[in-house]
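Obj.: predict assembly geometry.
Materials: sequence records (below).
Method: joint structure prediction, all chains together.
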Amino acid sequence: RKEVEQDPGPFNVPEGATVAFNCTYSNSASQSFFWYRQDCRKEPKLLMSVYSSGNEDGRFTAQLNRASQYISLLIRDSKLSDSATYLCVSKAAGNKLTFGGGTRVLVKP
Amino acid sequence: NAGVTQTPKFQVLKTGQSMTLQCAQDMNHEYMSWYRQDPGMGLRLIHYSVGAGITDQGEVPNGYNVSRSTTEDFPLRLLSAAPSQTSVYFCASSYGAGADTQYFGPGTRLTVL
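Observations (raw structure tokens):
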């Protein structure tokens, strides 16, 4: 079993709709979590950190559920420019980063 | 600032050839790392460095060497290329090993025939 697992998608989303997807992690000692965005054939870039209390950045909301060991990302009012692959990342002791395989989101007009 | 730069962008090698992937950053970051990205596998850590003169192995180090003679540069050497090393390679840097934000270079697409 992969340490960080994501539904690869693609999630086909009409422009303006809301989309949400999860990422599960198996290492209960993971200390912090992040969502990175990766455009096609580009490098990953930090989208947002995920805090225990959940956090929101504009149209993006991230949640952490430690009991069930998953994090989620919700995108409201989807824009065409939100089309990308979203990488879930966990950080454990020793600053070890583990990346999920990514969830592809396609926003269509 | 140029951020993190990588060269070359694309490379085709024959099995058994060696080459060096270059990575440089101009942000005075202490921590640098190399990842490979394969379809459906996520990014996997090859080697990392917490400062000049210090390197260590990551998850998939076999077949690769690194050195860190300066803060700015962190080259990755493929000793004897194999088709299994066909991948996209990303270099990343951050202020420290514990920093939340990793800054990635644009990547090198390597094909080994």
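Conclusions so far: The interface with chain A takes residues 35, 40-45, 90, 97-98, 100-102, 104-107 of chain B (CB under 8 Å).
To do: check interface contacts against the pulldown list.
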